[in-house]
Amino acid sequence: MEKGDYCWHTSFRRCYVSVHTFVRFEPRSGKETEFREELLGVVEPTRAETGCLGINIFESLREPFVFAIHSEWVDEAAFELHAKLPHTVQFLRAAEKLLTHPVQGLRTCHIAGGAGAAA
Of 16, 49, 84, 95, which has the fewest CB atoms closer than 10 Å, so is most exposed? Predict the structure, then answer.
């Protein structure tokens, strides 16, 4: 990564490399299966978006029915567009009824790390 390829200060609200988002989900009791289906249903339409570099869904090993999404986008504009598309809007509406909390994502730009020795 070259100097200037990423943001040093988040107040600029702009990254010069891809944008990563992380979201944690905790479904209401009795709604876990329904939420899991909604979550899995949004993966393929999201992957098909031209600005999506990748999306991965995770299920907790230690907390039953706790899920997370990690997605990567070419830039913030691509993520903003994603947030307005019908499949995303429909998922968020369903999530409102199925989760114990409002959906809150974390937008980030990568600043360090990479594959480990076992990769």
Answer: 84
pLDDT digits (tens, 9 = 90+) for 20-49: 999 999 999 999 999 999 999 999 999 999
Contact 4, 16 (CB under 8 A): yes
Beta strand 67-73 pairing with 52-59: antiparallel
| pTM for the whole structure | 0.83
Please give the tally of structural domains in the chain: 1
Q: Cβ-count burial of 99 within 10 angstroms (0-12 exposed, 13-18 middle, 19+ buried)?
A: middle
Q: Is 60 among the domain residues?
A: yes
Q: Which residue has the tokens 């702009």?
A: 14
- Domain-located, residue 117: no
